[in-house]
Structures
1.
Amino acid sequence: MSSAATTVAQSAQQSAPEPAPGAFLERSAVAESPTAAAAQGAAPQPAADYSGYKLVPARHPWRWIGTVLVALGVVAVAWSLATNPRWEWGVVAQWFTAQSVVNGLVETLKLTAISGALGFVLGFILALMRLSASPLLLSVSWTFSWIFRSTPLLVQMLLWYNLGYLYEKISLGIPFTDIRFFEVQTTTLISQFAAAVLGLTLNQAAYSAEIIRGGILSVDQGQLEAAAALGIPAWRRSTRIVLPQAMRAILPTAFNEIIGLVKGTSIVYVLAYSELFYTVQVIYNRTQQVLPLLLVATLWYVAITSVLSVFQYYIERHYSKGAVRNLPLTPLQKARMFFATHAPVNLDRTKEAR
């Protein structure tokens, strides 16, 4: 009897349909729910009570230690600047807006603007030559960048200023003939200002060429192929597709170069050209107030680079339109939002509005 019963039970289990994969889970969920438990006659289990727990904020002890140490350092530096009489802030204020210093500042800005504009234009041409399929253009561009990036700017300045020793006259005419359209003495043509502009421009062009070339190469070449397949002319492909995207990679490094150029104009003092640093040197050699005059030059350089940094922020924000969904807020917009969210609420006006 027992063996026959076992055989019947096994056949019944085999003939019974298998439950669906989610059937067991559904039954378990129903069985565990308070409603199902009440329907089956079992007492529902009470929900967990978390009211007795405390919210413990995350602790960052090292962050606070670092903040305190940096704050103490900032306070110590500020206290030293304010209380040490050897800084001679009165002398700094006296010479900061002096006419000779302002004239030197104007010459520094002039050198920066002319050399920066010409350097980036020449660098753009050299970058296109470097990307050209012509072996001659590529070789000339590479050699130019190699030479001017391998020699110190000071050496270049002195070389251009003493160009008259190598070439007595500079002439323009038909090569390998005696026909001359223009001829001038080299010492007359290469003045202090011309030597400074020439040295700064050529040095800047060598670095700008690599910056622009890197920005152009950062653009996906598939976009150019797609634009060419659509029949867009080559000039419009370069100006409307490649250049706007390349500017996002070019701008940060380019502005670093311009800021470096502002400070690099100080090396023109070796030509005795009256830019800002040379003017300050002349003054402190006469008055022996070395440190205050150096502070005057430092503050003006800081002011110039700060203005350039503001321009950099807004220009980069303009060219980021195609890369981000929402443009980052400007400092003025952030300030407005801060005051709008932290403004005190007037309860009387709120009651009147209700």
Note: DSSP finds 17 helices and two strands in the chain.
2.
Amino acid sequence: MSHVSPYTKVRGGRKAVVGNVGRPPVGWALPGILFFAVFAIVPLAIAVYLSFCRWDGLNSPAPVGMDNWTRLFKDHEFRQAAWLSLVLTSVSWAFQTPVALLLGVWAAGRQRSRTFLSAVFFIPLLLSTTAIAMLFHALLDPNFGVIKQIGPWFGIDPNIMGSSTGALLTVAFVGGWQFMPFHTLIYQGGARQIPEVLYQAAAIDGAGMLRQFFHITLPQLRNTITTSSVLMIVGSLTYFDTVLIMTKGGPGTDTTILPYLMYRTGFQTYDLGYAAAIATALVVVATGLSLILVRFSGFGTMRSTREGM
């Protein structure tokens, strides 16, 4: 139980009790709790219920027990989509994390051009995902896009979207290009919280910039890396509009990840009960990966890096 102490104010040499200082009442959290319940918990509960039903979107849902889940675990297309989602998530994390980390640490400095370049880096995050996907779809068109002209200069096949590996890597790149500024801001904020005295002491001991980065910056950003990684994993697992516009799950089914499979099942074949089962499985996978990351990173027992400073 936390101790709540009265706040005192001195008036004419006397101390007057003004009020109690402590945790705010629960009422302050009610708007956020209600918003989360209405737009997250309730839809999730409905999706879980529909995953045990057969529903075409027009007639009333008919309970079918575990039929959708039994079909899910036997469905080769679902297993392939789950694997592709994990691959896309891994590639996105490996691409975004080092770049965002380095940009964030750099942006936390005092360079003269830092403010202007940070604003330029932030621009992709201001654009809609649909607009960005349409832009890259046009640029990568093998017949009329820029890739047809400059691709051969760098040894890139102009029909890069026609190969399974190329299409998946392109989706990961486009998503990373848009959302990397968000993670850069997270790392920038984390880097600015590192006590300057640590770098001053390291400089006195003769440590250069590289040693300071690996022995001070990275350890101090451990919790920040975990936070960014959880957000990145959840975001990568829910890529949809980029895949819909750029590849439509192709070539073949080589970019049919779980969100797109859910969309195609629900809104093209009108099997909304099975689509709800896919959606629920996606939530379970995303939540499970996030919990594993938090558990093994020690994030749950983190303490302030400025404690004792």
Note: Confidence is low (pLDDT under 50) at residues 1-9.
3.
Amino acid sequence: MTTTTPAPTRGTGRGAPRTAGRLPGTARLAWSRTAFEVRTFFRERDAVVFVFAYPILMLAIFATVFGTDDEVVAGSGVHFPQYFLPGMIATGVMLSSFQNLAISIAGERDDGTLKRLRSTPLPPAAYFLGKTGQVLVTAGVQTALLLAVAALVFDVPLPDDAARWGTFAWVFVLGTAAGAVCGVAYSSVPRTGRSASPVVIPVVLVLQFVSGVFFRFDQLPTWMQQVASVFPLKWMAQGMRSVVLPDAAVVVEPSGSWQHGATAAVLAAWLVVGLVVGVRTFRWRRRDDG
């Protein structure tokens, strides 16, 4: 007579053998997701060229139009390439964060990628942290390239003290995070992936024109300055001007100061607003998919 050994079953006691591996933690999954998002981004060559080349191209255009030898304010020692550099850094961050995520997530929703991800064990937090990590990486590379071109091609002097680079770090990180969460929240506005670009890009262009990216902010109409002050791009550009420009250049600011406290407050407020709106409105499925 042959006896059959019962198949091992999954125990519930402390000493029971484990037959199934535990899922990695959220932090590890977010790191893996970040690596995946970065690889995916760099495979989209047209997006890479636009996001990386746009700020550099615009800096070159405005430096050529206004001249590299003329001073923004007579006797200030600040030339136009140096003045426009902070605005180009800020608009580059906005492209990498807000515009990139708003368009790409809308496309992933439209083609069913988000629906499939939602049915996997991947925690939603890991997905969003992966997107934010990808933005930080790409925005960092983009900004480094822009600073290198400004210094090597247009002889823009870069900060030489730790305090200014510290300001640069917190403005960059806070601005990038705010742009990322707002991009996630805004991704629910386009009805389809195809309509994402026409819905997102005009918003970015308008903010660039009113936020002192293409023009001296103090020379814009007062009502336009007030509108721009509601949105984060103006504050990112102003924060970056406090890093790149000498202290004497503060005279070109309408407020007469760099307003670091207000910059941090507005960027943090948009970070919170983006998180709240994103949590309440984010959709994993298309509108016609229930």
Note: The chain is about 65% helix and 0% strand.
4.
Amino acid sequence: MPDYPSLAALDTLLASLPDIGEARRRQLGMVRRELAAALARDALPVAARRNVRRLLETGSLTAYLRLAESGTLRHRLVGGRRPPTSAPTNQARYDCLNLARTAAGLPRLPLGGGAPVLRPTPEAGRLTALRRQLDQDLAGHLSPGRIRLTAVLALLLDTRSRSGELAVQRVTHLTDGHTGIHIRRQPQHGTTAAPEREWLPLSDLSRAALDRWLPLRADLMSRAHGTTRLWVSLRMNHAGILDDDGRATLRPTGMPLEENGLVTSYRAGRSRYDELRRLLPPKMEQLRRAAEEQHLAAQV
């Protein structure tokens, strides 16, 4: 198949995704092969050959998904034919595309992708144990990554914020003394509800976590160009977008952390710290829904 510039840039983009498991890497490889096959068939816009953002834009992916889900782009025959792909494969394909789009600075797909089966949420007792563990952690020495993760988890528990809502939080959203925070609620993907603003009080745990995070954030930010975003990067990285010479532009520490970075830090922290692995569900969204369920139960 032709080696289009957009595919070369996509390879660099996918290689830059941190903390991706072996199974997800295989799924990303499948998506890459299918995209290459779709380009070779001239099934996507011509501009999708030259530019990775055009390759990942909604118009290109709508055509790609239609072909892929029909089985036309299958790498191997099944019983001598290419049947439609299964619902789990379709969902994995959709998730992989959103990983790539987020890394490329694009919003999540406003496409179907099927109704995902919601994973179970932790019971209320585990949330209580998690708060207790975070409080104990704050009393001792913590690495920079652990400090940021603790603050993220504490605010998630207090505000029941989605990852996208957490990513856009700013220090200016905090009230004096960190007693509360203003949240801009974002509608779920695929809905037309208008965003809402909400003020929420913060617990002692969140205030203590912010007392550890904000000085560290200020130090990290001093190496970048400055931002009011609450969550910033701990180390150098790049945006995944290549220049005309095919090189990625490095970004210093202290740059705004995007939604994918927050989700990745959650997965990495859960994997790295044994005491958190037993308390945190695999997905950040499961923890958010558990916090929401606990909040609603307290209102009854």
Note: Confidence is low (pLDDT under 50) at residues 189-193.
